[in-house]
Design a protein that fits this description.
alpha+beta
Length: about 160
């Protein structure tokens, strides 16, 4: 019979109490950090939808996309760079602080393979005043291999008025 102070036969010792406490605290600490990160993590920015006012502005034809073209070039790193270029015109009576569009790429069967939201007028290149036309350039360096190699659909995603 073994007493509490004896080691069992075979040379294996028992785990010390301080080591168990330290390991337990480490595990609790890791779990606490993970829980706090998931609970108070910065929420993903939500993409606002077109307001009724913005939908009416688009429906009334006050935003026009012209000279939309697609060019493909090869970079120095032998990577394909696809650019969609064109012009946007504000034929309406309101100044626009921001205009974002969705570029929707499809596969040969018409299925969406990439949908990317990008600004074409905004803080970086200025808003869009009534009667103003601005060029835009949308570069894409990583498109899915299943893309059908045609011009993506361009859909107004958001308008912010001044």
């Amino acid at each position: 019979m073994l007493s509490l102070n004896q080691r069992p036969a075979g040379g294996r010792g028992t785990v010390s109490v301080p080591l168990v406490i330290i390991l337990s605290l480490a595990i609790v600490g890791v779990l606490l950090v993970l829980a706090l990160n998931s609970r108070w993590a910065r929420p993903e920015p939500q993409n606002p939808v077109l307001t009724h006012e913005a939908k009416a502005y688009v429906h009334d034809g006050y935003l026009k996309l012209d000279d939309v073209r697609m060019n493909a070039t090869e970079s120095f790193a032998k990577q394909m760079l696809v650019e969609v270029t064109g012009k946007i015109t504000n034929t309406g009576h309101r100044t626009l602080r921001l205009v974002e569009i969705y570029c929707v790429f499809h596969d040969p069967y018409g299925q969406v393979v990439l949908r990317q939201r990008l600004p074409i007028a905004g803080p970086r290149n200025g808003g869009l005043k009534p009667g103003e036309t601005k060029p835009f350039r949308l570069p894409f360096d990583e498109l899915p291999g299943s893309w059908n190699q045609t011009l993506p659909d361009l859909v107004i995603a958001q308008i912010a008025f001044e």
